[in-house]
Amino acid sequence: xxxxxxxxxxxxxxxxxxxxxxxxxxxxxxxxxxxxxxxxxxxxxxxxxxxxxxxxxxxxxxxxxxxxxxxxxxxxxxxxxxxxxxxxxxxxxxxxxxxxxxxxxxxxxxxxxxxxxxxxxxxxxxxxxxxxxxxxxxxxxxxxxxxxxxxxxxxxxxxxxxxxxxxxxxxxxxxxxxxxxxxxxxxxxxxxxxxxxxxxxxxxxxxxxxxxxxxxxxxxxxxxxxxxxxxxxxxxxxxxxxxxxxxxxxxxxxxxxxxxxxxxxxxxxxxxxxxxxxxxxxxxxxxxxxxxxxxxxxxxxxxxxxxxxxxxxxxxxxxxxxxxxxxxxxxxxxxxxxxxxxxxxxxxxxxxxxxxxxxxxxxxxxxxxxxxxxxxxxxxxxxxxxxxxxxxxxxxxxxxxxxxxxxxxxxxxxxxxxxxxxxxxxxxxxxxxxxxxxxxxxxxxxxxxxxxxxxxxxxxxxxxxxxxxxxxxxxxxxxxxxxxxxxxxxxxxxxxxxxxxxxxxxxx
Length: 508
Known about the structure:
Elements (H helix, E strand, L loop, with lengths): L20 E5 L7 E9 L2 E5 L3 H5 L7 H7 L9 E6 L2 E7 L8 H18 L6 E4 L6 H14 L17 E5 L3 H25 L7 H11 L6 E5 L1 H7 L2 H7 L7 E7 L7 E6 L1 E5 L8 H4 L7 H16 L4 E11 L11 E3 L5 E3 L6 H13 L6 E6 L3 H7 L4 E5 L2 H14 L3 E3 L4 H5 L8 E2 L7 H10 L8 E5 L5 E2 L10 E2 L4 H10 L3
Parallel strand pairs: 1-7, 2-5, 2-6, 6-7, 10-12, 10-15, 11-12, 14-18, 15-19, 16-17
Antiparallel strand pairs: 2-3, 4-5, 8-9, 9-12, 13-14, 16-19, 20-21
Helix pairs in contact: 3-4, 4-5, 5-10, 8-11, 10-16, 13-16
């Protein structure tokens, strides 16, 4: 069926993100599939989550572990062994050689198991039970996140109605803290899935104003204030960077501001997310290969919008303000040129060396504006540089910060969330490359240490006294390979769980 005109951006409602029903259960019930773990220590394998009820299903055929080992089961991470029992499929997921399991081990195992079930059969009508000996709040949250995120992936744009990928998921656990973990996991997983869908949406269906309107619908029931500046308001207020980057497009730029302010909040977290809804590179045109995926250059904006909603839904007592500078970087007679000098919100002037450095230009305006909020912590997140991907690969994000204490706080949040970040320095050499002969700053130096220069450039627009961190998610925000564990192909939603964990740490 051909895509109907109704598939414009107004049709795409992030509220349509349908996650399977998920609940805590005490036993297998009417399960069609059960996911357990297998870990190893000192050369011996141990089952994780093999309840007495499950063992009884084996009957006189032996032991569950014995049957799985006969099938070639291994505790190698993410390896899956299937065992068919009467009316029940058992999937044993390898969890590595360490019996001291962390929440990320549980998250991955749940995602691997659920994804495998869906790869074997049509998930419609399946009742999956995940049994991984998880009962503490953080454990159940990890399992529920892994199971839900592993059950969803890229949503094809089609006129056919979407079906729920799986009937329902049960997690064996019963404590009061387990209920809190389940609720938190559901909220966070939903936020990640909304961000994935926005990021996957083609640029012809999601321009700057479209994302603003999508956000209004997404937040309609949340206690979050929304403000959106159009091109006239941007010009009046002096946002020269956002206007320059968006000037070449027929769809003008926007600056979206969200504010969640619970009464009990004592600390203020400000988030800034890069929102380039399509990045052609401008007159420094990208390669044909790169152009096909440049719809994902607004992943940072999707992250801060959905993270703010998750923080509000969780009822965290922290004041959160989020900025999403939104622009489409195109080529036309009104596009900004290499050599142009741009005036940023704080009055700084920037010589545009390369129009494909548009992300740092729009972030500069938003960061300069964020100073007026006097945050306790300011974090920007962006698919910013290919240089960071060269340094860290495609599955690890870069982190730069105003000081080590701020970096440690972000790294702790990332560890709690199960996301990989690596701290990079902002060197004096990078800072010395900032001055321009024709303006206050230049937007680019040479090709060496490009991620560090970008960090130094952004820090220029942050008040010296502010605790600030920059997250470069250019690599892990888009999965160029096959789906794995709870990570789908294409948009991944990287960074949201870390931002939520960071906000939670600020409620102490």
